[in-house]
Amino acid sequence: xxxxxxxxxxxxxxxxxxxxxxxxxxxxxxxxxxxxxxxxxxxxxxxxxxxxxxxxxxxxxxxxxxxxxxxxxxxxxxxxxxxxxxxxxxxxxxxxxxxxxxxxxxxxxxxxxxxxxxxxxxxxxxxxxxxxxxxxxxxxxxxxxxxxxxxxxxxxxxxxxxxxxxxxxxxxxxxxxxxxxxxxxxxxxxxxxx
Length: 194
Ligand code: GRF
Known about the structure:
- By secondary structure, this protein is of the alpha/beta class.
- The chain has one domain (2-191): 3-Layer(aba) Sandwich (Rossmann fold).
- It is 38% helix and 21% strand.
- The two termini are 16 Å apart.
- 5-O-phosphono-beta-D-ribofuranosylamine is lined by residues 7, 9-13, 88-89, 109-111, 136, 172, 175.
- The site of 5-O-phosphono-beta-D-ribofuranosylamine has 14 residues, from helix 1, strand 5 and helix 6.
């Protein structure tokens, strides 16, 4: 199984996936990394892991790719012959052309226990709500924002002296364990005969 990775940020989840691949525990191969941010850390990381990385100019919108930009993503992912797509800190909403090209084959990790705290800075939302625990969720991507079928979750405690930064850091440790495990399970599920 070949996976394509989309990310906008520093790429720590991608690093966890690439390291799991290197140690032979991912069960599939990251073959291409795409970013809507030209100087994103995830593209430098891709280079350091010898995985092709490309910047795709997003166009004029803030929260989604322009249709031509999303078409370019689809083309690059199809040319790389990916079996499914893993979003790792990708900050734009996935639109119809990508969903149609990879139906049921796009997964995401979100830093809360969905369905709680969808959207941006979910760790800050959890802190403000005063919940005793939060966590991270791996889910299928659909046309909504953080609304797709939940595939797996990890729970993370919220501590009395947590700041947004300390809580996010604790959630990320859980993400780096959960995501490679979920990617492996998802790949296994796709490999099973229908
Ligand atoms: C993670 O917290 C993830 O849950 C969210 O974006 C962040 C990406 O971090 N979707 P990184 O770029 O993988 O370090």
